[in-house]
């Protein structure tokens, strides 16, 4: 009886307190390579995801917490240093002041943060009909449902039901809250031309860019799981040693 | 206890004569006579001490990189997660450590409730414990505010606004707490300062808690006093040092599971959205360990009433040694109390669940009943049970229940 109560206790604590809100459309759940205790990111997918981000998302969405040097770090897309340098150089950043006290523009280098499409939040709002496109640095961790939700949202655009009124600047998406979203459909067939020859279906692009955003939100995932496996193995071995030491010590106590 | 402990080395003798730390540890702490029948529920004191130290150590390093400013706090936490060496690990240990510490403290408190550890002569240990719990609540709450995400900001707003319920001076107190007319940088800075200070206050109270424990000695599952100089006790070292370490390592396996494999499971997704004073989250929910108290707060339609009830729900614990009228400590020998104990645990869990839901309709009604029961447990049942309950006969000593029949008869003839 006691055991059952304890089980229920912990079951409640962990499961129900943050239960998912009931939605009409549960997000899709594709196979993510980074799931499970040993799951890691798929390099090629991360690299393609970066391409989708730069060519599609970055028109409106900033990623302020990422810098170009992150692209070559272990556990990420792992571009070569030369590739990342070239990618950074495609953007201009303001630097300065120089000796004359003037600010000037220069190509971005590895240590620069991802260049934002906007000068400030207000400009972003005005350009997007009042809706601010959120920064994508930790978006996957900032949304209930995580990667599944982001993936589903990206391909969840459909024609609205006939009885639904859709205002200007709002779009119908079956996975969005209230089925309405201010972001227009971002991904279309062959929206990007993948450099590695992968066919750019909307599902493929959504998959790749979601993988990329998941890495952006949790860049140390691979190191975390690797270290975690070692830590837990060590602790389990230690617990066995302590268990037998403990038994030995208590042997003569009745 | 070996009062005649003497350091063996010359340096030890010199030192101990001037500051008897060695005598304290080698002469008192290590051989401290501990009841031999303590079960694993008794290992959570040691686990909590470890958790406190782990929080202080990780917190110290985090504080080296964290910036307590409304414009920079969120990004400085992300800087820790991304750029600081093993910063992600420190932060996940610290964030999950708070949850683990509350899990341990609730078990620790429930153990005390079950085995009557708060009763005479251990009332002060318990009361100090209640103060430690209060400080833990304040520390954890302020710590949760520091990352300055949406939940941080709105939790700070909701809780500091509670002070405005105080009649006449409420508004002034709230503005004084905020250091302005809204939640912002001044509040964040002072929360950071206090969050840094409080663990050390907790540490000081823990020393008093253990000191007060070492006067009467541990309670035990039988809830009876140890017979002095009998076979009832074993020296703390190595018996309980090793047992506690084993329990700690098992606890750490679970802890590590959270840190390395589901580090954000106990957190709220909204806290990865930077604080936005213009946008209230759909549901403002506290961390899981505050949910029962949150449910009590919301069960009263009046703000001041809710605050009073929530504060009372914790303060009432301090009076428990006198609300409980039964002379028998352990629930093992209190058949009625034992059932009410589990009912109380179920009630708290129910309150926790209700705290996570919206407070309306049926949920609100159940929350009100559960809140009423919470107080009835302490104010009616605990005093009443001492008078109406027929307790089971207590064993003569800790050794008795485990002795064979013959041995017991042998003892009986000896004593007559």
Tell me what you see in this structure:
The complex is a heterodimer of chains A (254) and B (416). Chain A is mainly alpha-helical and 254 residues long. Helix content of chain A is 39%, strand content 5%. Chain A contains seven helices and four strands; from the N terminus they run αααββααββαα. A two-stranded antiparallel sheet of chain A has the order 1-2. Chain B is mostly helical. Chain B has two domains: 33-153 and 191-223 and 233-278, Up-down Bundle (Cytochrome Bc1 Complex, Chain C); 285-389, plastocyanin oxidoreductase (Helix Hairpins, Orthogonal Bundle), CATH 1.10.287.980. Chain B is built from 16 helices and two strands. Chain B has helices spanning 10-18, 21-29, 44-65, 73-82, 87-115, 123-145, 150-162, 170-178, 185-214, 236-261, 291-298, 303-318, 320-323, 335-356, 361-388, 405-415, and strands spanning 33-35, 233-235. In chain B, helix 3 packs antiparallel against helix 5 (87-115), helix 3 (44-65) packs across helix 10 and helix 6 runs antiparallel to helix 9. Chain B is globular and about 75 Å long.
Helix/strand/pairing category of chain A: mainly alpha
Note poorly predicted spans of chain B: none
CATH superfamily of the domain at 21-66 and 114-186 and 194-241 in chain A: Cytochrome c-like domain
Q: Helix share of residues of chain B?
A: 55-70%
**Could you describe the largest sheet of chain B, including whether it forms a barrel?**
2 strands, antiparallel
Distance between the termini of chain B: 29 Å
Pick out the low-confidence regions of chain A. 10-23
Number of domains of chain B: 2
Q: Work out the strand percent of chain A.
A: under 5%
